[in-house]
Amino acid sequence: MRRIKEAMLTFPSFCWLFFFFIVPACLVYILAFKTADYTGKILPGWSLETFYSLFDSRSISLTIRTMWLSILTTGISIFIAVPLSYYMASCKKELQQKLLLSLMIPLWSSFLVRIFAWKVVLHPEGLVKTVLVFIGIIDEQTILLYNDIAIVIVMVYSYFPFAVLPLYSTASKFDFQLFEAAMDLGATKRKSFFSIYLPVIFPSILTASLMVLIPAAGAYVIPEIVGGNGAEMLGNTIVRRVFLDNNLPEASTLSLLLSVVVLIPAIVIATWKASHTSQIKGYS
Amino acid sequence: MSRTVRWISYSAFFFLYLPVIVLIISSFNASRFGGAWEGFSLTWYQRLFHEPTIWNALTNSLIVAVYSSVLATILGLTSALSLHKYRSYLQKIHLGIILAPLVMPEILMGISLLFLFLAISVKLSLFTVFLAHTTFCISYITLLIKTRLESLENSIVEAARDLGASSWQVFWKITLPFLTPTLVAGWLLAFTLSLDDFVITFFVVGPGATTLPVYIYSMMKFGAPPLINALSTLILLFTAIITVIYYHIAEGDRS
Question: CB distance from A114 to chain B under 8 Å?
Answer without folding.
Answer: yes
